[in-house]
Amino acid sequence: MWGICIVALAVMSTVVVREYQKSQNSLEIIQQQIETIAAQIEEVNKANNNLEKRITEFEKKQEEDKNRESIEKTTVEDQEQNESVDGQITQSGQSGITDLEVGSIVDVSKISWSNLDSYFQAYEIVEGDAVYNRIIGKSYRENNDIGLADLRYLKVLHYNFDGNVQVGEVIVNAQLAEDFLSAFKSLYEEHYEIQSMYLIDNYWTGDGVTSDNASIEVNNTSAFCYRTATGSSKLSNHAYGCAIDINSQQNPYVTYDGNGNGSCYHENAQQYLDRTSGLDHVITHEDICYQIFTNLGFSWGGDWSNGIKDFQHFEKPLY
Fold it and tell me: Is the dihedral of CA 73, 78, 81, 87 positive or negative?
């Protein structure tokens, strides 16, 4: 009996051990599977993190691109607005001063110093154009001495007596156009003040001599006018566009008697007969205007020694 029991116990023990071993094997397999799944989950999490990072970077780049496009668009619009306001080179390639109205005040902060030449321009005068229609029958008429092709219309910047930058105009000889442009640009850079600069045709009275007087009365600076010289039957250098009168009130045409006493026709210039007064805008040998023009080969009427001194007058004869 005991023998049977022992055998039965042995068999049962063997079965239990085998089952235990099976369960251990199953646990190991399960553990391995758990570890595998955990590793897979970790890989998935890493992939998700990478995906989220890439999505974030993509969204950030899109936002940056959008902001950059907005900035570029604003910059272009600002540039176009500035160009239309201050007269700098436009998209059509026109010069800075071309579309600016003569006599208009220009905001100096809008002027491009790197593009300053575009504010000092010379143009041909063509029959039928706006300038021609202003001058024909007035400062210019058909003649055998000077033709339209020999003249140039200049538009320049200058400081006026209020210290503002203003658009001016003159007509000069084509051969001297670059000299005049250089002079006006230098005067501008020196902040030299010229009260006004309009074509003499704005003050036309019927003939060149009286129109010149009318221009002087309002202290206008002008150059070309097909007329005779003051007190002479000969053509003036103004008739060839080879002379200019600058700030004529402060720099009058003066005749002197034998005692050196000066007199001038224009009442508004009487206080400027004394050339040592130190008053503003008086041209002397020390004045920058004198230095600029004479350095370009012009002579000054203030140096005449024939009993007449024309302090407003600079000329460079070609004929």
Answer: negative
